[in-house]
Amino acid sequence: MGKHGLIVDLDNTLMGFRQTELCEDHLAWCERAHERGFRMVMVSNNFTERVTGIARQLRIPCIPNALKPLPFGVMRAVRMLELPRERIAVVGDQLFTDVLSGKLCGLYTILTEPIEAKDFPITKVFRYFERLMLPERGGS
Q1: Which end of the chain is more exposed for a tag (fewer CB within 10 A), N or C?
Q2: What domains does the chain contain, in order, with CATH numbers?
């Protein structure tokens, strides 16, 4: 698809909500992306300590406390990737944060299934509305 840059979410995209260690599959996925020449930046609404620790393991830059769906964190990531917008994809598990922030920046977005059902309390509210909008996520 001509994408060479990835902006990835952390919680419930790369690792479970309260997990502290990346699983081998996700470490390997990021390593394969590096080997294939992808540039990556992690953009997360989570706190600095958690986000920077995981980003360090993955050898990628990060933007913690991003306040998604506001587009500012994603816009910073676009500048960090130094690629045209049409060559960047945003990958995340939430429609109203990850996908919306990517769309507000004019980027291609990939909505993944959450790794686990556990979430921050506010995220549970967003999940309810996701299920209403996305039949494949349990809506009617």
Answers
A1: C
A2: 5-137 (3.40.50.1000)
Mapping DSSP onto H, E and C, the string for the chain reads: CCCCEEEECCECCCECCCCCCCCHHHHHHHHHHHHCCCEEEEECCCCHHHHHHHHHHHCCCEECCCCCCCCHHHHHHHHHHCCCHHHEEEEECCHHHHHHHHHHCCCEEEECCCCCCCCCHHHHHHHHHHHHHCHHHCCC
What is the chain's length? Answer: 140
- Chain segment 72-82, per-residue pLDDT in tens: 999 999 999 99
Over its C-alpha atoms, the chain yields an Rg (Å, rounded) of 14
17-59 pLDDT, tens digit each: 777 888 899 899 999 999 999 999 999 999 999 999 999 999 9
First CA to last CA across the chain, in angstroms?
Answer: 32
Claim: this prediction has a pTM higher than 0.90: no
Tell me the C-alpha distance between 43 and 61, whole Å: 9
> What pLDDT digit, counting tens, does each position of 88-102 carry?
999 999 888 999 999
Answer whether 105's CB lies under 8 Å from 71's CB: yes
